[in-house]
Amino acid sequence: MDLWERPEVHARRWFLLGVLSLTLVLVVMSVSGLNVALATLQRDVGVTGPQLQWIVNTYALAFGGLLMTGGAIGDRYGRKGALLGGLLVFGLGALLGGLADSAEVILVARGAMGVAAAFVMPATLSLLIEIFPPPERPLAIAVWSGFAGGGAAIGPALTGLFVTGWWFVPSWGWEAGFLYNVPVVAVVIIVMALWLPRSRDEHPRHLDPAGAGLSIVAMTALIYGIIEGPEQGWTSAPVLSAFAVSVAFGAILLLWQQRARHPMLPLELFGDRRFSIGSAVVTMTFVVMIGFWFLFALYVQFVLGYSALEAGLATMPEALASMVVAPFTAPLAAKYGSRRIMAIGFAVLALTFLPLAMVDTETSYWFLLGPLVLAGAGLSLAMTPATNDIMVATPYEKAGIGSAVNDTARELGAALGIATLGALSTSIYRNTVDVDILPPEVAAAAGESMGAAIEAAYGLAQSGAAGEAAAQATIAETSQAFATSFAQTMAISGAVSAVAAVALLAGHLAQSRGRSRV
């Protein structure tokens, strides 16, 4: 008897969907939630701009690199156990991060949380597939995807609340970006232990540690090269070596997956265009969106002067739009075709980035509100049909693989988005800021990043009236440079989204013509 056919499971399937969605929100929030604490973290702990990118990306790299392995372990030994064990490690990692006093310890904590999330996230989607009968699965997947998109935007608001404090909520500082997870994880573990049914694959896939290791090395080398490019120079030996290592290990990974008796990822699944195109869409969606969330949080805090709480609340319209639109995508995709809906999603994202390419140091929130709503709608329109296509194209007995591929595509997109758009923004900022007109005491810091410039300016302001005036001039120049870098990066994101929309629409039209000829 399938899990969804058991009466006690069928009766509480929507409750279980809520619990699984809450679990999903926890791990997704950790991708973006820390963004609004980065400015405070940089000031209090003294981390550099590249270290900030690594703090964010370490989670995504560990998460994405081990998702296939985590999903396989859950399939083989039990998804409930994978969920509970992953949540326990996730909570301990959050506790370590909240108690850390250096960038190195924070990196270790983020890495542990990413490893744990790799066991949690694929199990949520695999269990969802088993809990719901086939007719209800598209709606359940749409709700799951809506919470995934909404969680990425809710994370900054919740983190900002605890970082800044408000009304009866005390200010915890940047540590709140970690510690709020601990009590929630404890409650979810208890609920799951009591009510979540056990589930495992009757014919589990074998583990592929070699494939997992090769993928982690290839991804880490690629991200290292992208992040360090603006720091050490794109043609420097370390950066070129990193790209070479990434290409070499990526090629070895493909060869290994073709020849291994039990590959981590059966490459034949990509022969189904629904699977391959869905995976590409999920990746590209998160490239532009995670990069946007990362830079938007810094822009509104560094340039517009928002607190962490204000920066987090600023993204709430996006979260609401994403969760409202997501349930409607399944019937729309069924009626008009998933590629057409995904194309519309990317077109909406292109419209999102168009006005963001015109922001400056005086932009009001009312100007940002429209793009934020469009971003949430575009995210759901693009990502939800893509996730459904991946799962529909995956054989039922390999649901764990489909879930893990979907999640890996997300985290690969997240890591690439933060690295590429972060590096692009850094390069534009450094080429724009005029350090020659700044006081010598802050010129070096201003040339590195705006966060470092603010910290140096605060120190300069303590030296008297002349120092305060120089500090204000430093903030004005670096704010303008950062606003320019953010605007130009958003313009490029808009162009990428527009190209993706055209490509998907062209593919849909070609597919329609092929069917009409048959």
Return Rg in Å. 23 Å
Mean pLDDT across the residues is: 83
Tell me the number of helical segments per DSSP (H or I, 4 or more residues long): 20
**Main sheet?**
none
Strand content: under 5%
Low-confidence regions: none
Inertia-based shape: globular
Order of SSEs, N→C? HHHHHHHHHHHHHHHHHHHH
Number of strands: 0
In short:
With 518 residues, the protein is mainly α.
Q: How does this model look, in words?
A:
The chain is mostly helical. 81% of the residues lie in helices and 0% in strands. It contains 20 helices and no strands. It starts with 6 loop residues before the first helix and ends with a helix. The model has no long low-confidence stretch (mean pLDDT 83).
List keywords for this structure.
20 helices, mainly alpha, globular, 518 residues
Topology:
Blueprint: H1 7-11, H2 13-32, H3 38-45, H4 49-77, H5 79-99, H6 103-131, H7 137-164, H8 176-179, H9 181-195, H10 209-232, H11 237-259, H12 273-303, H13 308-314, H14 316-336, H15 338-356, H16 365-393, H17 399-432, H18 440-448, H19 450-461, H20 465-517
Helix pairs in contact: 2-6, 2-7, 2-9, 4-5, 4-6, 4-10, 4-17, 5-6, 5-9, 6-17, 7-13, 7-14, 7-16, 10-11, 10-17, 12-16, 12-17, 12-20, 14-15, 14-16, 15-16, 15-20, 16-17, 17-20, 18-19, 19-20
